[in-house]
Amino acid sequence: MGFDIYLLEALINGVLLGGVLALLSLGLNLIFGVIDVVWICYAELIMLGMYAMYFLYTVYHAPLLVAAAACIAGVAVLGVLLHLLVIAPLLGAAPINQLLATGGVLFFLQSAATVMFGIEFKNLGLRLPVLKAAGMFISYSRLLAFAVALIGMVLVYLFLSRTYTGAAIRAIAQDRQIMPLMGVDSQRIYVITSALGGGLAGLAACLLVLQYDVHPFVGLTFGPITFLICVLGSLGNFAGGFVAAFVFAEIIALGGLYSDLEWGYVLAFAFFIVMMFVRPQGLMARRS
Amino acid sequence: MTRPLPWLLGLALVALPFVYTAPYPLHILVVILIWSFAYTSWSVMGRFGLTSFGHGGFMGVGAYVTALMWNKAGVSPWLGIPLAIVASAALALLIAYPCFRFRITGHYFSLVTLALSGIVLQVITATRDHTGGSLGYTPERYQGGSSVWALQFGSKTTWYLIALGVWAVGLWLWYRVDRSMLRYALEAIAEDEDAAAATGVHVTAEKLKITVLSAAMTALAGALYCQYQMFISPDTVSGIAISLQMVFAVVVGGLYVSLGPTVGAVITILLAEILRISFGTRAVGYDNLVYGILLVIFIIFLPRGVLGTALALRRAS
Q1: Searching chain A, which residue's CA lies closest to the CA of residue B289?
Q2: Is the residue at B277 inside a domain?
Q3: Contacting residues of B for A231, CB less than 8 Å apart
Q4: Does B173 fall in a domain?
């Protein structure tokens, strides 16, 4: 079997998936790079954001853009709450305790969603048309998600590189001890970063809800893969996460083309483990 | 050992099913004992800072290898369980050796093992032609009902005694590790790997020993669960949720004390049962809701767990 149109379609869909995965990993990487904490419950924040979109748009008939804005703001507030209530008391504790505490939040959010919203699959009831080009089918919702994810990442990059607060955030990520001595209020930076990380989760929720049904356990679909992407790209390294997201997305898309989607995930997981042995510090690690 | 209290308590536990035969409480006790053993298996390595999120994978291998050997090849669990344990230990070796060799520690180790949980769950789901996928899998019933050959028993008393025995072996292994040089080596490694290596500790070998032991014990727990429940599904014996459940129960009970995982199992399983009985089907999700909040509160205020804190208070007074 030579080059065929299905392969190209899978490759393109992989790139589009990669955009959204890159957005997901950016939020998590930001939190890790700045606060040195892994939010195991990151994907559950996205799940709540997807529910927010569902209720605002489908049940209360808010305009789509208003619903999206409210969703982003709401998840950003959740991020700040998570930081103040759970992370802040544990900042001095062993890293593993922070990991476990956010694991507890994962349990809590999943079951809170089960209790409040039930386990039925829900969707926006909004079907965007499908683009037909050269015999390939590519859905507009994926194209839109890809484009918005890219714009979101560029905006975050500009924020981090061009503003005073952004510079402070990058400085904290480099040296957590010295920056308070330079007059940076690290607590304030942590709260801003948490809001930013939450906001990115909210943005991801707006994009994912266009393509996937929402249910209380939907976070388990994206969560693990997001962690793997961040680790593979070196935790806290934005460029690494970006590259790793596309590598993973292509593996999943191509694995899904030749076999079931599960095997795509199995391949991605196996690839991750092999890569950890080849490059233990991640794809983009500097050789020391 | 001249302290009589543990022996008396042990004797009382053995005598219990002959005095008290109500099936439902006995069922709960068997479930508690099996999970206590699984949690003890996790804590054997977890107490040295090796926070594995991959134990759901080891448990899944234990349960599915045993059941598949019985159904597909007619291999008795007496041989199937050792095979499952070997398979799980081999998997642990395959993942852990490169991890330790290349010094993947802390967050990174947790996330690599998280990937392992994910792989095992996805493989079970993807090979649905053989494993039944997410619908679950049932070992074939032996015709006569109870059979030592098939390791299937109708009587709850028999299962209680088996689970009690395995649980006691788990505790014994915990104590063996606690009294060994391995423990001192691993504590040194947990403090500082370079310093431990400088004093002559073979870091990779010591960490591998404890990981393989822990994975093998966890596989036995999975096989036992499978033989007792006679139904397994990817969500009840493998995956990230089960891995997190293990970590959670151990933290609640107490990570650094021998009976901590057991206390954790008692608390979590009784909590789930009480919620299920008092709320019925509306309780779907309630148990995890309470678990989640408790886990966060415990990590922040009682990181030593219920039993660990109680023992520390008694020692202080």
Answers
A1: A108
A2: no
A3: 107-108, 111-112
A4: yes
